[in-house]
Amino acid sequence: MQTNLFDSTPGGYDSSTVVANLLPKDGSATYIPNVFDSNSCSMLSASLRATLDWQQDQLFMFGKLITTKREVAWVGDAGCSYTYSGVKKFPQAWTPELLRIKHTAEALAHHTFNSCLLNLYHDGDQSMGWHSDDEIELEQSAPIASVSFGGGRKFSFKHKFEKLGASVLLENGSVLLMHAPTQNFWQHSLTKTKRIVPPRINLTFRAIRQEQQ
Fold first, then answer.
1. Distance in angstroms (rounded) separating the CA atoms of residues 3 and 155
2. Do the beta carbons of residue 75 and residue 98 sit within 8 Å?
3. In whole angstroms, what is the distance from residue 95 CA to residue 5 CA?
4. What is the C-alpha separation between 125 and 202, in angstroms, rounded?
5. Which residues contact 138 (CB under 8 A, 6 or more apart)?
């Protein structure tokens, strides 16, 4: 029997497990576990690793170009270039699997996305430091939908101006929705862990401002 990669669609998860808002103020971060079932997650992860052009990430730190062990892929509509950490990225074309994941993310977020940044973390030592997704190309009022496949990792928030914080374990098949004005007031990070965790692919679906293309 053929497995349907998208048996788990919006409305198929247990609504009682949804975290309505992780943040105490100045934004909204909604965590939805089990949006995709485990079989779908395994098949999607394998497909994404095989069909996308993954590159080691590059960013400028303290005036130097740093190459990370973490791998990235930038996918989007034609013209959706994106600059972060001083490096400009040009989009790969959407794959059928990515378009279907995007459709699920859009149904949950009630918003249309035209681009996606994918990060491949091979182990728990690979992480993402504190930052906000507030680059000039992004539509500031649009939500960001973060989809996780693979090993569960701790995702933390800290307020930019007050001593406030929150965290959540991003589990296999989950979706985290960050709505405006979250990026204006909060930073987030994916922390390192000494635990042995499987590789993880994170997809953040975004809306690029058309006038910036």
1. 30
2. yes
3. 14
4. 15
5. 183, 206, 207, 208, 209
What are the φ and ψ backbone dihedral angles of 61, each rounded to 5 degrees? -135, 125
111 φ/ψ angles, rounded to the nearest 5 degrees: -155, 150
Ranges assigned E (strand) in the chain: 28-32, 55-61, 64-76, 82-84, 87-89, 115-121, 128-131, 144-150, 153-159, 165-170, 175-179, 186-190, 200-206
pLDDT in tens, 110-131: 999 999 999 999 988 888 888 8
CA distance 173 to 39: 10
Rounded Cα–Cα distance for residues 13 and 16 (Å): 9
Work out the number of other CB atoms within 10 angstroms of the CB of residue 54: 17
Q: What pLDDT, in 10s, does the model give residues 60-93?
A: 555 666 667 789 999 999 888 887 666 778 899 9
Residues 45 and 56 sit within 8 Å (Cβ to Cβ):
no
pTM for this prediction: 0.86
Q: What is the DSSP string of 167-189?
A: EEEE-TT-EEEEETTHHHHEEEE
Residue bearing tokens 């989809």? 147
Domains and CATH numbers, the chain: 18-212 (2.60.120.590)
